[in-house]
Amino acid sequence: MSANLRPSGQQPKNLATYDSAFLKACRREPVPHTPVWFMRQAGRSLPEYLKLREGVPMLESCARPEMVTEITLQPVRRHRVDAAIYYSDIVVPLKAIGIDLDIKPGVGPVIADPVRTRADLTRLRDLTPDDVPYVTEAVGMLTAELGETPLIGFAGAPFTLASYLIEGGPSRTYERTKAMMYGDPELWTDLVDRLAEITGAFLKVQIEAGASAVQLFDSWAGSLAPDDYRRYVQPASAKVFDAVAGYGVPRIHFGVGTGELLGLMSEAGADVVGVDWRVPLDEAARRVGSGKTFQGNLDPTVLFAPTEVVETKAREVLDAAAGLEGHIFNLGHGVMPSTDPDALTRLVDYVHTQSAR
Amino acid sequence: MSANLRPSGQQPKNLATYDSAFLKACRREPVPHTPVWFMRQAGRSLPEYLKLREGVPMLESCARPEMVTEITLQPVRRHRVDAAIYYSDIVVPLKAIGIDLDIKPGVGPVIADPVRTRADLTRLRDLTPDDVPYVTEAVGMLTAELGETPLIGFAGAPFTLASYLIEGGPSRTYERTKAMMYGDPELWTDLVDRLAEITGAFLKVQIEAGASAVQLFDSWAGSLAPDDYRRYVQPASAKVFDAVAGYGVPRIHFGVGTGELLGLMSEAGADVVGVDWRVPLDEAARRVGSGKTFQGNLDPTVLFAPTEVVETKAREVLDAAAGLEGHIFNLGHGVMPSTDPDALTRLVDYVHTQSAR
Q: ipTM of this model?
């Protein structure tokens, strides 16, 4: 591990957010109300986002600090959520170190020249703050605008990044990824270790610029059997969390379909364990043990139901969370593009009202 | 429930298969070796299948008894698996009652006119044996050819069928399906009840013609939170199992990503609980309780690994199954099209050898 991935003694840069409900919940302290934010709250569910993005390709939008700032702020203004999530894409750091890739609308990230051999690893060079000046700039603008509302930094985890690099694009089965993992475990380990260094450096840029927390998305880790996760993935994710441990900012970890992996993902170094809608939060807490905050976990499709159903289901989430040391209300996966934004606003109000102490 | 869904006192039609390792394992009796079969063993992984299917659309192939018979037999001949699975598609009974649908290569089932209103339910009429004469004929030919090797009948479960009918095709999110479930639970209940009657009738045709077991695939049930599964899906699946309970043929139930639902799916009436690769079999047994056989659960992508890795992983499955009352070796999901068929044959040999008593 390179020395620059082990900061120590640093403090969160942004003390204005320290007493927010979100950060209190992360620290498992008493909260005035259960904090709420939504994965993909910034994005296609909002007409103001669609308007702003018109004619601007995804990756270009991620590299324009003013646009990142505006898109990140939109759901905070509209829904009054308790945290902002930095608008980005998990492939942004890969693009920043020179990997030839694009995000194709309706498809997802597409890698021009997939990573499949040891020689390919040389293309994965270190990421430095100079590779992502727009991130530093956008986070600075955001924290100034957000005041006491925390900004959550954002990165994709090594397994998920590796799956895109190896498959060359989105996959449902991760055939080539797992073939490398099983068939050439040394190459695999070196690849995810490389990605861990890049990801750790990328999160550090966001924290140094003022992010009050980070979420590491291992979107597709749920495709792995627990033994495989433990052996092939957990060490790399732990390395990412370790890289930012010294800042004292809460570290959130989430992947969809990870019910069997919650304990292992928590052990990797998460302070907050994200849970999808398949596992009730009290059951998640039994699997993970004490000393953690839980984030989740309303089924995103519930938002297509009538308001009274949404509220009943949200109430069930709050009830399941009643015995937890810390709870951040969220969906069990990202907001779906066709979600009515008013339903999200009503949900925030409902959770705030119901949980007010 | 209509009277014709409640046979009683019937015996399995095909007594030749009674002493097979597969049926013994289903009954939790001692076996000479752990029986093996693979979901999607008949299909695109086999060159002889691709050759036979050349120029023949999927649904047409399912309606030609000689072709069904040959395709179903191919993997039995090649791999020496312990059971055949009836070659079909989950939408076959829907097509048979007149729903306008097609299976588009590379896409999946596409429904011309999705089912979204109460008026649409009238299109879901009862299924009778006369709607599927080719099934009766193919099963008859198959059982004659298979001798002591059991044939597993095949159907899709009400939730999964409903998801295709409502979405109009494959989905990753089941937005419209869940919107109906949450928003119009009476319509939803009537829809899956209708599908349960059709599915029960379809499985009865296969059993009456000589199938020795049935597997009900609820492929996408894993998208549901446990409470939603219990409320909106389990009763319909139970109705299907109930419809064939009187025949005394083992009933297998499987869905991918169903780790949190295994107990509920078992309670629906399964004798054999299929488990995907995400949950170790011993853990699955803890969740389900006693009195059941378990089927699974090697990650299908392991077959892309070198032989020694495949064998190590298969050994781990056998070890996890060591304490079970009954175990049928299978993959945790269907065989992937690009799988080397020789790797499957070697895996069958390995499991047979390792488990020989």
A: 0.92
